[in-house]
Design brief:
heterodimer; A: alpha/beta; Four Helix Bundle (Hemerythrin (Met), subunit A); Rossmann fold; 4-stranded mixed beta sheet; 11 strands; B: alpha/beta; 2 domains; globular
């Protein structure tokens, strides 16, 4: 216990005695970056706190330090090679506090995440140390390679803090999101909108307020909660933007219940028109491109692609499907299950013949393929496709072999922005133990799961970006469109909001 | 798909008869297409306008239904329906979107017919517009390669000849050998011209400055459907880094997205099908195109016996019958598309089409 006291206590007491670098040569406030200024501010505050703390007995120090983890951790980096690097996981978790806004310790299974956070803290620390003290210490060099991935959305711990007045339906949804129980872009959007319907129905406008002005302030924390569970998908963003528009357009004179019913109806219409009907049109249009004798290749699992294939099969087309899949999610197996269990089409009675292979086997299969059909998470206005990691490889290989690549994507998945690569914005896939991996193997799946160590970080980005040149056509509910013309669709449809 | 076609035909037969009884669409179509100046989409539009004139439909719904039926009849009876479909599609979209403010429905019908005739008359002036537009892209003393015969390309070349010195290579363009027609017309106009064998395009490409082809239809991908051979010219032009320009009136823009040559509406399974001497009598299925999982051990003596009846020589007619009329050129091979709405990049074409039909 005294050792721990030292660990936490020393950094807090440090700065007061020895303030390196900036203190010796104080730069002007203007020359400093925002982060540096904050750093300085916190250091000064910490120094003040520490000087106060030195007066009382050392016994109360740990609890004080934990109650005020911000200054303690922020001051660590300034001390050259900090003790936090080799410290037990306790320090990073305490340091973790200000980042998450939750002082609680993460659950036992969150080892990987806390180590991620640890890395974050450590690399930030080492980066700062490098700028101050030359940064020639080994651990910092070791983890430098990962710095470029630090901005990827990390999977959140299960019991992350619930702040404010969050509706139970949203809390439940947040858990489902963070555990990847609800995962696809369409599924997440539908689930969010359905939960918002409950929230809207349970909402009561406070006195001296109007629904059209107040409801959004009630919904904002709910949205924040969902985003804190998992970064918002483009589909959710588009749907929420539309919802905001509808709320602000609500007539003030409408009785509250009527207004709420009208909003719920609008949500239902949105789900029906933009997702369900759109999927039907897409499966019809894409189905026309499937002919007898075709070999269709798809990657991972997309609900739209599944509908396309099942519908074409039900129409009696005889084609075979290659499902390409990849770790860690292995979502293709769910698709495979659905496809192989599809009833034999009535005339002539044939079941769909399917092939399942992992991504490394793709080059040997691609030459047999007639069409590649892919799903989408979102589609950017330059026509770039943002989809499950691995999609870009499939599309590029297909282009190399002159196989047409169709992307099935509803127009509500269009994103106005442009991103240039998969690094700019991404998420990390959930760690393996959360997933049921049962790919045939002689060893138990748990032995395949790599555990992150001090010098081993496992990186599983969830998405990647396919350049528009690798996509032949995008199948939307308004027709087949080359990816280069995506930006003209909202204009052509006369929509300002996607 | 041999199994499904009879079913589809059976479904369309009553419609065709119904339309025939009132008004013979196809006969009208043939009568109008006798005018050599009119291109197929315009003929289709005029045919459908005539259909409206003769129609007894009392509501918009009925009228549009009749138009669809008429278009279906035309499509079925025409040997190459692509540019015809473009015209029908354009006109039906126009009718559906036409502002509905006439006093009575018969007034609306007359208005529609007038509009169609006006459009067709205006459509004839598009070629002149395109010729003017192209003029800036043809340099003095340049060598132009063109393919087959196209009215709009002819007009463009003749217009360019008035101001600039041009010489023209024209491909023979089998099977229809319309290149000869181009040669005759250009020589008569005093333009130096030479006919190139389809197989000699790569040979001549080095000397060419600009490739200029007409089109059957410009499709949504920004690609081009034209007389067979255009695709290989485009590929060779790309390989030689020569600009490949397509000229097309805007009524040839077609809402279609072919993914490959085999995805064209004009493709039939018997086009370029293999004659397998051992399986000559076996009906061809679509699967046979890709792989028939038959091993040599399956070949029975009877099959070998039958194989002797396969003729070992093949006539020109058989070759022509077995070959496609049109092919599809990918958008990335096309430099620019000149049309009456401006000179568009292939991406611009698809944006124009999206705006025209999605709105």
């Amino acid at each position: 216990m005294p050792a721990a006291t030292n660990d936490v206590g020393t950094p807090a007491s440090g700065p007061s005695s020895s303030t390196p670098g900036p203190a010796n040569a104080p730069p002007s406030q203007k020359a400093m970056t925002k982060a540096e200024r904050r750093e300085l501010q916190e250091r000064q505050r910490a120094a003040k706190a520490a000087s106060k703390e030195q007066q009382p007995a050392g016994g109360s120090a740990p609890s004080r330090a934990q109650a005020r983890p911000g200054p303690a951790s922020a001051s660590t980096p300034r001390r050259g090679p900090p003790p936090a690097i080799n410290a037990p996981p306790r320090t990073p978790i305490a340091a973790n506090g200000p980042q998450r806004g939750t002082p609680q310790r993460a659950g036992g299974s969150a080892g990987r995440r806390s180590s991620n956070a640890h890395d974050y803290q450590r690399t930030r620390a080492s980066g700062d140390a490098a700028s101050v003290a030359g940064g020639d210490d080994d651990p910092a060099n070791r983890s430098r390679g990962l710095r470029i991935f630090l901005h990827f959305g990390l999977p959140k711990p299960k019991g992350h803090g619930i702040k404010g007045d969050i509706h139970p339906a949203i809390i439940r949804l947040g858990l489902q999101f963070s555990e990847f129980k609800i995962c696809g872009a369409n599924a997440r959007c539908i689930a969010t909108l359905t939960a918002f319907k409950t929230v809207i129905q349970d909402y009561v406008t406070p006195p001296n307020n109007t629904l059209s002005r107040h409801l959004m302030t009630h919904l904002s924390p709910q949205i924040t909660h969902l985003v804190s569970a998992r970064p918002m998908s483009v589909t959710m963003g588009n749907a929420i933007r539309q919802l905001k528009l509808e709320i602000s357009d609500t007539d003030i004179d409408l009785p509250e219940q009527d207004a709420k019913d009208a909003l719920c109806l609008k949500i239902d219409t949105y789900i029906r028109d933009r997702i369900i009907i759109a999927d039907e049109v897409i499966s019809e249009l894409a189905g026309k491109k499937i002919k007898d004798g075709d070999v269709i290749l798809t990657y991972a699992r997309s609900s739209v692609v599944e509908k396309v294939l099942l519908r074409a099969h039900a129409e009696g087309k005889r084609f075979s499907v290659i499902v390409i899949d990849s770790r860690p999610m292995l979502e293709g197996k769910h698709l495979l299950k659905r496809l192989t269990s599809a009833p034999a089409s009535s005339f002539p009675p044939t079941t769909m013949s399917c092939t399942y292979a992992l991504l490394p086997a793709l080059p040997s299969l691609i030459s047999k393929v007639t069409t590649v059909i892919l799903g989408a998470h979102s589609l950017h206005s330059n026509g770039a496709l943002y989809s499950r990691a691995g999609t870009a490889m499939v599309a590029m290989l297909a282009k190399q072999h002159s196989v047409p690549v169709l992307v099935c994507c509803e127009t509500y998945k269009f994103s106005e922005g442009i991103i240039l690569d998969g690094f700019e914005k991404n998420e990390l896939a959930p760690p393996l133990p959360q997933l049921r991996t049962s790919f045939p193997s002689t060893r138990p799946s748990s032995s395949l799961a790599l555990e992150p160590k001090a010098n081993l970080e496992i990186l599983n980005p969830l998405y990647d970006l396919t350049p528009p040149s690798c996509v032949t056509a995008v199948v939307t509910e308004v027709g087949l469109i080359p990816p280069t013309s995506i930006s003209s669709i909202p204009v052509a449809l006369g929509r300002t909001v996607l | 798909m041999p199994v499904k076609t009879p079913v589809a035909e059976g479904a369309q037969q009553p419609l065709a008869k119904q339309a025939d009884a009132a008004f013979d669409v196809y006969a009208t179509y043939q009568k109008i297409s006798a005018d050599d100046e009119l291109s197929i989409p315009l003929v289709a539009i005029l045919t459908l306008a005539e259909l409206i004139e003769k129609s007894h439909a009392g509501t918009m719904f009925e009228l549009v239904k009749e138009l669809h039926e008429g278009a279906a009849v035309l499509e079925k009876r025409s040997p190459n329906p692509i540019s015809l479909n473009a015209g029908c599609q354009l006109f039906i979209a126009f009718v559906t979107l036409f502002p509905h403010d006439s006093a009575s429905f018969s007034d609306l019908k007359t208005e529609l017919v007038q509009q169609a005739r006006r459009y067709a008359a205006e459509g004839l002036t598009y070629r002149k517009k395109i010729a003017e537009l192209c003029l800036g892209f043809i340099k003095d003393d340049s060598v132009i390669l063109t393919h087959s015969y196209s009215r709009v390309v002819m007009q463009t070349l003749l217009r360019a000849h008035q101001q600039k010195r041009i010489s023209v290579y024209v491909t023979e363009a089998r099977p229809r050998s319309l290149g000869n027609k181009t040669y005759e017309a250009l020589t008569a106009a005093g333009i130096p011209c030479a006919v190139v064998l389809d197989s000699a395009v790569a040979y001549v490409m080095e000397k060419v400055d600009v490739v200029l082809v007409g089109s059957e239809a410009i499709v949504e991908s920004g690609g081009l459907i034209n007389a067979v051979g255009s695709n290989q010219i485009a590929i060779i032009a790309k390989a030689a880094n020569k600009p490949f320009y397509a000229v097309a009136e805007s009524y040839k823009f077609h809402r279609l997205f072919p993914l490959s040559q085999y995805d064209l509406p004009s493709h039939k399974p018997d086009i370029l099908s293999f004659t397998n001497p051992l399986f000559n009598s076996k009906p061809l299925t679509a699967d046979a195109e890709h792989e028939d999982g038959i091993t040599p051990s399956d070949i029975s003596n009877a099959d070998i016996h039958k194989a002797r009846s396969v003729p070992l020589s093949i006539s020109q007619e058989d070759i022509y019958r077995n070959n496609p009329d049109v092919d599809y050129t990918r958008p990335d091979l096309i430099s620019l598309v000149f049309s009456d709405v401006g000179s568009l990049t292939p991406e611009g074409v698809s944006q124009y089409l999206v705006g025209m039909f999605a709105g």
